[in-house]
Amino acid sequence: MLAEKALELVRQQHRCIEGALGPFNEDGIRQVLEEMRALFEQNQRDTSATVAGEAGLFSSIQLRHTALERNKRCVLAYLNSRLEHIGQMRWEFGSVLPADVKYNLCEEEVQWFNNYNRMLANYMRAIGDTGGLDLTQDMKPPKSLYIEVRCKVDHGEFETQDGDIIVLKKNSQHFLLRSECEHLIRQGILEHIVNRM
Amino acid sequence: MAEVDMFHEEGGDEEDVVMTAAEVLEKLEEAWLNEKFSPELLEGRMDLVDCMLDQLAAMENNLRMARKGDLKISLHRMEVDRIRFIVSSYLRLRLEKVEKYTSHVLEKEEQKKDNEEPLMSDAERQFARKFLECKKNHFGALALKHMPPNMQSAEKELAGVAPKLNSYVFLRVNENTANVLIEEDTVDTGEEIIDLEKGDQHILRYKPIASLVNSGAVSLI
């Protein structure tokens, strides 16, 4: 069926929209592009035949053209959705991608991540008159100044704002300034302990 | 809190409006909520953001000078954190819309006349342009350049991503506004006009009241 491969791409992307990003389906894209090329060639043949005087080819040209447009739309939707996903990861993981995520991206997408990273950094530096604001901090409304955290891995020494040095050892618990350890929580080094009443 | 000077430009005439920091914060909170609930990108209130960031820097400086262990410090620091969250969240919301509707907001900005308030700050505009350029390059390299010659442009697809202006919003009325056209005259139904009274709350389609949100006559909640 026409445009089936393209639909499969969209479906595939739709399935992983909430979870992790799947590998870049280069083969799928190539197949769609091949189908498009075939459709386009057929259409060109039929168009010249019509010009030469043959009648009754209009509807098939129309159909192929619609299939072409649909294929294009699906491919772009697939690429775009992945770009959005990759942009989102900049906010979650910071400026360096974990290796297992990077493995699933194609070269251009890694490039996109780096570009996005640079754009965002430039933008954040330009906020205000006093050297910018890190928008990736303060992601959740602050409820209290200090929070209780538990270490999930051996991280080593950590210097707090007051100049105290604490050792973050696996399974140790600390009472820290939320603003200081927010990024460590996001990296998965610390875990926020929420007391359930 | 200390008084701060705000330079407010209106219609080319420069006029000084003196606002206290508390008032600026109140305005910023309103702008933040409006941005949060409106489907489209609103005019940026970078004057408020810049002013609040200056205040934050001053407050943080004061905190560093203060005596250790004072109870007031933690209260103040909490306040600083809260304000910074609002500022960051406001800018994040705007950036999210810029990323989503890049082509649309850039076009809208271009249609604005010179004497109108800009939609985006310089930094946001720069971000939007670069973002669009990179996206086009990405599409081009991976797909478009392999497509038939008459299909190699993605302008139509990119411009097609526009905010849903007909979605419904909750709003509270700040100023009495009479004769607001809510529904155009159509064959099936007559036109619908309502008066908005101060303090009223409504659920309405966003599009007819979009200008009132920008002018501050209503707030989205």
Automatic annotation (TrEMBL), chain A:
Functional note: Required for correct functioning of the GINS complex, a complex that plays an essential role in the initiation of DNA replication, and progression of DNA replication forks. GINS complex seems to bind preferentially to single-stranded DNA.
Organism in which the protein naturally occurs: Littorina saxatilis
Keyword Nucleus: yes
Broad class of where this protein is predominantly found: nucleus
Keyword Zinc listed: no
Stretches assigned to the GINS subunit domain: 48-127
Annotated InterPro entries: GINS_A, GINS_bundle-like_dom_sf, GINS_Psf1, PSF1_C
Keywords noted in UniProt: Chromosome, DNA replication, Nucleus
Example of a GO cellular component annotation carried by this entry: GINS complex
Pfam families hit by this protein: PSF1_C (PF24997), Sld5 (PF05916)
GO BP: DNA strand elongation involved in mitotic DNA replication
Subunit structure as annotated in this protein's UniProt entry: Component of the GINS complex.
Domain (DNA replication complex GINS protein PSF1 C-terminal) ranges: 143-194
Protein name from the UniProt record: DNA replication complex GINS protein PSF1
Family stated for the protein in its record: Belongs to the GINS1/PSF1 family.
Compartments where located: Chromosome; Nucleus
From TrEMBL, chain B:
Recorded family membership: Belongs to the GINS4/SLD5 family.
Subcellular compartments: Chromosome; Nucleus
Pfam families: Sld5, SLD5_C
Organism for this UniProt entry: Littorina saxatilis
Ranges for domain DNA replication complex GINS protein SLD5 C-terminal: 163-221
Domain of life: Eukaryota
Cellular component GO terms, alphabetical: GINS complex
Role: The GINS complex plays an essential role in the initiation of DNA replication.
Keywords: Chromosome, DNA replication, Nucleus
Domain GINS subunit: 71-141
Protein name: DNA replication complex GINS protein SLD5
Lineage of source species: Eukaryota, Metazoa, Spiralia, Lophotrochozoa, Mollusca
Record-level GO BP terms: DNA-templated DNA replication; double-strand break repair via break-induced replication
